[in-house]
Structures are given as C-alpha cells and as structure tokens.
Amino acid sequence: MGWKTLDDMELNGKRVLVRVDINVPIVEGVVTDSTRIRRISPTVRDILAAGGRPILLAHFGRPKGERRENLSLRQLVPTLERAFETRVQFAADCVGPAAELAAETLQDGQVLLLENTRFHAAETKNDPELAAGMARLGDVYCNDAFSAAHRAHASTEALARLLPACAGRLMQAELQALESALGKPRRPVTAVVGGAKVSTKLELLSNLIEKVDTLVIGGGMANTFLAAQDVPIGISLAERLMTGTAREIMEKAKTTGCTILLPRDVVVARKFEANADHEILPLGQCPEDAMILDAGPESVAAIAAVLKASQTLIWNGPLGAFEIEPFDTATNAAALQAAALTRSGKLISVAGGGDTVAALNASGAGTDFSYISTAGGAFLEWMEGKTLPGVAALIQ
Fold first, then answer.
1. Catalytic hit among 36, 151, 169, 201
2. Exactly one of 61, 96, 234, 354 is catalytic; which is it?
C-alpha cells in the first residue's frame, strides 16, 4: 500500500490541512447536489473526534488565477456546516497573513475553510513557494480528494511532501477499491467498457487486456470494433478511422489471454430519439439506413454468464444509448445482474466515470455495487495504469 491513513497519524491538538473536492454545482447561490460534501464528512468528523482541527483546502471552478466572487468558497459555508454539524470558519485566502491568523486562532471542534486555491495561478503550476505558504498553516497533511489526485498541483502534490501526510477516508476507500479491482483482484476479472469513442480510451483498453480475463465492449466503441471485422453497422456512431487500432487491440488480447466480448445481436433504429421504432436483429443484419443503439438480449445473456463466472468486475461506460428508452435495456440488465451478484457476496464490483455513475444510478443498481467512484479523470488514469501524482506524494 505504501501510504498512511488517518489511523496512522497523531492528530490530537494538530492542525490538519485537508485537501478536499467540494467542486459542487451551484444555481443562484444554492448547492443543488451536495454529494461531494457528504462524502468528505467522515474524514472531517474523524479528525475532530481525534482532537484535530481540520483546515480545508479546495479549488472551485476555473478562475485561472483571478479572484472571482462567483467562484468564492465562502458560499459553501452554510452547506458545510449542515454536513459537519459544527461551526465552519472562513479565511479569505489560502495563504498569507489572513489565512495564518485564522489557522492560529481555530478552536477545538471548529473547521476552517480556506479560499479557492485556484485564485492563485501558482496552484496549477505546482509552485513550491505557494505550497510552502500553505504548509505554514498546518502540522499534518491529509489528501481526501482522489478526484484531483491526477493533477500535480501545489495543494495536491508539492504540499504533501512538506508535512507528514496521509489519505483521508474517501481517498482511502477509493484506493482500496481500486487495489481490490486491479492491483490484487480475485479472479476471474471482467471489465465492462462502453461509451462513444475508442480514441479516448486507447490507453485504458491496452492496460485492461493485460490485467483482466474478459473485456466486454459496448456503446459506440463496440460499433468501431464490429466495423473492424467488416460487420455491417449502417449509419451507427463509430470511429471508422480507428478500425485498424481496434484490430490491433483484438490481436494483442489474444496474446495476453484476454477474451473480448462484443455484441452478438443488436437493437437498431432509424431515429435517435426516445421510444423510436426499433427492432432486434442478429449481428451482421443492420440495415444501411439504421443505427445500432443498444446490445440485444442474446448479448445481455452472454454478459450475464460472464458476470456469473467472475469474482471481480470493473465498469466504465454504458452498453448503449442509456439516456433514452428503450436503448438503456442492456445497460440496466447487466448492471442489475452485477448488483445482485455483489449483494449475494459473489462479486466485487467497482465502477467509475461520469456516464457510468449516471447509468448505474438510473438503473437502480448503483447502491449495491461494492464501490462507485465519483472521480472522472483520476479513475480513468488509474485504470490506464498511470501513476497519480497526488497518490505518489503520499508515499513517504
């Protein structure tokens, strides 16, 4: 593992700089989704319970080094106080005299929120002087922002090297879930990868075929792989210039012993709209004027059989056009199957990525997965086998 958790740190009487992701949606000053705030609550509460004084560091939006009031973290104070059930102080900067005074006068049982780190252009440049200014505010560093761990910024990378460092509860859960899925998984391991484009997930696919036993490919990506095998796909969404790459991936999978599972039957329509007239056809019979919008029941049955034989599942991306009915059928069916197997203790299931979270929640299966990551880029880069700067900096 290599990194420490809150349990490994002496926190009593210590000021704990906690890097969090509270980049939540706000409409007319009101937080419309506080999920990210709720998910950092265990870390804040545990620090308080151990006698520590949490000082929160976070970015908000993309101010690009300019102070913009509509991107001030001050507006999040009421929501944070409700989540933490304690007083939250606010400092109008994340470094300098005002921040230092606020940190020095912070009382037991209180939380301090520092202003948007990205009001300083030096933040995204991983500037050592900015990190040193932040370090003067605390005694311990805790990173609880896995979703920002793929960025080498002052508050995620340089700062972690200046203080005793550890992972917060959310970061700990993310890393443990990913380790169980790709690091030392229970085998057989199956990965479900969907979405529109092969080009955006080349590194992901290349890494997965070396680590999983079965790779299920769905969505528009599957159309590209079908076209690479000269299977008619009509006017379906596909990257026809990527068919050569798709063939290379399939050939590489043969050498690594990874089975690639593509649709065996398809759901086609002539209009991309909800409840459009559609039909289920055998593979290879998509009309020239139709588009493939989902995998068919034979494909779903094949995926279900693979899931039933698996012990670990990694999921990223939908199997079809899940945003519109009835082309969410394959995604929903496979997700519910994975959820049932997880619930019964037969499967460890880890999922992540924007569309993935939305699709699993829409199916009602999300609550039963072993772990669903809300991190987008960081989750994908971990799956691609890349080193995340914010995680590497915790290994001291």
1. 36
2. 354
Residues 61, 366, 376, 377: which is the catalytic one?
377
For 133-192, what is each residue's pLDDT tens digit? 999 999 999 999 999 999 999 999 999 999 999 999 999 999 998 888 888 899 999 999
Ordered by start, the domain boundaries in the chain are 6-170, 185-383
| Active-site residue, 109 included | no
Instruction: Indicate the CATH number for domain 185-383.
Output: 3.40.50.1260
Q: Is 254 a catalytic residue?
A: no
pTM over 0.70: yes
Q: Which of 14, 82, 197, 264 is catalytic?
A: 197
Query: Tell me: domain 6-170, CATH 3.40.50.1260, correct?
Result: yes
Catalytic residue flag (residue 184): no
* Dihedral over alpha carbons 376, 377, 379, 383 (to 10 degrees): 140
| CA-closest candidate to residue 272, choices 325, 336, 201, 210 | 325
DSSP E strands: which ranges in 317-367? 348-352
| 197 noted as active-site residue | yes
Question: What is the distance between the alpha carbons of residues 330 and 370, in angstroms, rounded to a whole number?
Answer: 21
